[in-house]
């Protein structure tokens, strides 16, 4: 998209999903005029837009969730990276790279609140894969909730996804035995051969209990939950005393009218387990500290990534369904 363009495309949410695949009928693709800026405002041209499982919650009508739902008629919420193409804001200059909640839009007029300047020279795909929402979520959940210790065993579900792959690599770098749960043999090979996980479980083809017993003979100390489903019960039953469970996502349940039942709480008492759900809107103020925590791992070459890039803003709609099928190969994003 040309920086001097006088029109841009955005996608608004106009209906709530009711279970099942995400379809075009939920959205309205609109063409808008380039906005004029007042003092203290800037205009961002988005280059790459992140697709994340959290979006299913943002589209729901649940007003008691951790963040208000996207209002019908509003531009769909998402994080992204872009560059400043016009500025009347003293803290942002034309050419600055920024990331934040930019939304499903090619351009965004903003007062700068919630925007973070990108302070490294990594490509946009790398920044969005590592330093945006996935990396912040992984760092917060692993270190602040999981509280890992060298020598412990951690199981990560959704381990080939954008968050899970970073969690596993951080844990491995800190000396843990890392087991990842994935949905294909290709993903299992990637997390073990490329990312350095100690073992992988294909939940679609492996005997979950038997494979978990073989890979974690001393039990599980930390469980980083991204998916829900049968693996949740298998891992829960092998948790060690004083184990920690960080509940980040439950993608297996998002498309169901009635979610699956969770494990029985008797084990929580017997094993004195700590189970904590967390979401990043509670920690936006911590992002500078989280970036400072994560950056050394990246600079030391301990964090690898791969991006699954879709082309063009409208691709976001059907692209969300890749989370349900497991068809995404790496961090899912849209190039604008």
Automatic annotation (TrEMBL):
Alphabetical list of SUPFAM superfamilies matching this protein: GroES-like, NAD(P)-binding Rossmann-fold domains
Keyword tRNA processing attached: no
Record-annotated Enoyl reductase (ER) domain positions: 20-334
InterPro entries: ADH-like_C, ADH_N_2, ER, GroES-like_sf, MDR_fam, NAD(P)-bd_dom_sf
Listed CDD domains: PGDH
Gene Ontology molecular functions: oxidoreductase activity, acting on the CH-CH group of donors, NAD or NADP as acceptor
UniProt keyword list: Oxidoreductase
Name of the featured protein: NADP-dependent oxidoreductase
Phylogenetic placement of the source organism: Bacteria, Pseudomonadati, Pseudomonadota, Gammaproteobacteria, Alteromonadales
């Amino acid at each position: 998209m040309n920086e001097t363009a006088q029109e841009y495309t955005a996608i608004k949410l106009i209906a709530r999903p009711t279970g099942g695949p995400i379809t075009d009928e939920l959205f309205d693709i609109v063409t808008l005029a380039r906005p004029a800026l007042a003092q203290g405002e800037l205009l961002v041209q988005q280059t790459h837009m992140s697709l994340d499982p959290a979006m299913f919650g943002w589209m729901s009508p649940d007003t008691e969730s951790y963040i208000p739902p996207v209002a019908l008629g509003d531009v769909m919420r998402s994080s992204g990276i872009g560059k400043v193409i016009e500025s009347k804001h003293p803290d942002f200059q034309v050419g600055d790279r920024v990331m934040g909640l930019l939304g499903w839009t090619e351009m965004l007029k903003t007062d700068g609140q919630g925007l973070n300047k990108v302070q490294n020279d990594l490509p946009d795909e790398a920044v969005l894969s590592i330093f945006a929402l996935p990396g912040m979520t992984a760092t917060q959940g692993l270190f602040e909730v999981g509280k890992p210790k060298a020598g412990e065993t951690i199981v990560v579900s959704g381990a080939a996804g954008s968050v899970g792959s970073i969690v596993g690599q951080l844990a491995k770098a800190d000396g843990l035995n890392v087991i990842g749960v994935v949905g294909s043999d290709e993903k299992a090979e990637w997390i073990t051969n490329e990312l350095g996980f100690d073992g992988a479980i294909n939940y679609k083809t492996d005997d979950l209990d038997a494979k978990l017993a073989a890979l974690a003979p001393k039990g599980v100390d930390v469980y980083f939950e991204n998916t829900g489903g049968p693996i949740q019960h298998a891992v829960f039953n092998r948790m060690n005393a004083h184990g920690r469970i960080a509940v980040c996502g439950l993608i297996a349940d998002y498309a169901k009218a009635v979610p699956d039942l969770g494990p029985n709480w008797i084990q929580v008492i017997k094993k004195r387990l700590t189970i904590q759900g967390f979401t990043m809107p509670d920690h936006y103020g911590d992002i500078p500290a989280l970036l400072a925590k994560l950056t050394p791992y990246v600079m030391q070459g301990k964090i690898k990534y791969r991006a699954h890039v879709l082309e063009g803003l409208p691709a976001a709609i059907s692209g969300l369904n890749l989370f349900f099928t497991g068809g995404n190969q790496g961090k899912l994003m849209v190039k604008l």
